[in-house]
């Protein structure tokens, strides 16, 4: 079918050989709750006062709408991110960079062994279009799914306005480095980014830069701790400096990473302040593998075949270091690149 031709032309990896679904619909708002329902292929999404429901041919999955919206927000703002975004141990998406798999139970050992798993493949921009409509319709006024729980209202109840300003935020993606001419700007009180209450002890001085004449646009420096202390979102690794495929993605974290991120490449973590505890599970089966407690200065490398979820009791600063090479996932799948960055 035409599908196969698309795959061959695009060169997009499709290890399961799935056809592409292009059926989407939006049902009118429910008379009682006021929320619309959304369909992407055979996945049907609806919400009520407390829960999101995902109906699939293999079963219906329920999530707290709080957790669902926080996870959906990351998938939307990150453009499906690297690898897999597990909303929880059952439902999620896997990014093939141009196309995306949406799955139910497919990365859960028990669901798979009982034949209860289900996957469909979509064009990324088409599924993103439905996800964006869903986060817009299902987010009420006063609830910001990017914010830490203590900093925002609640998502419960019947439909009540929207928070489109908050849910349309994109993550920062610097071309070279934050603060350089023509690049993504530094944060300040004036630009609407006050220092977070948990970071009032963070020095706000900026380094002095004295560039040689002619190099003013090439030499730059900024106070990264000051910059992070002014982040208005949590669990949102943002590209702050770029050297070829080397991406520094620092972020501030508080409460729980709303997804279990399934890596498709190795990913370095440098704990810059406070503490995060990571639950590490096998990427395919979901079996628990390790608990990693990171304190300031600790460095860890998450392997390419795991999923991880972090818990941060206080707002903390984390540097996530990504290798952005588009070749890596395929090399790892084919066994041509290792799943760990270092072997001792
Ligand atoms: Fe990750």
Note the topology.
Elements: H1 2-10, E1 20-21, E2 24-27, E3 37-40, E4 43-47, E5 51-56, E6 59-64, H2 65-77, E7 84-86, E8 91-95, E9 99-104, H3 109-113, E10 118-123, H4 124-138, H5 164-167, H6 224-229, E11 241-243, E12 246-256, E13 260-262, E14 267-273, E15 276-282, E16 288-294, E17 299-302, E18 306-323, H7 328-333
Parallel strand pairs: 1-10
Antiparallel strand pairs: 2-3, 3-4, 4-5, 5-6, 7-8, 7-13, 8-9, 9-10, 11-12, 12-18, 13-18, 14-17, 14-18, 15-16, 15-18
Helix pairs in contact: 2-4
The structure holds fe (ii) ion.
Describe the structure.
The protein has 344 residues and is of the alpha+beta class. It has two domains: 2-166, no CATH class; 170-232 and 234-333, Jelly Rolls, CATH 2.60.120.10. It is 17% helix and 31% strand. It has seven helices and 18 strands. Strands 1, 7, 8, 9, 10, 11, 12, 13, 14, 15, 16, 17 and 18 form a 13-stranded mixed β-sheet that branches. A five-stranded antiparallel β-sheet has the order 2-3-4-5-6. Helix 2 (65-77) packs across helix 4. The termini are far apart.
Structure at a glance:
By secondary structure, this protein is of the alpha+beta class.
Helix content: 10-25%
Structural class: alpha+beta
| Average pLDDT | 95
Distinct small molecules bound, one entry per kind? fe (ii) ion
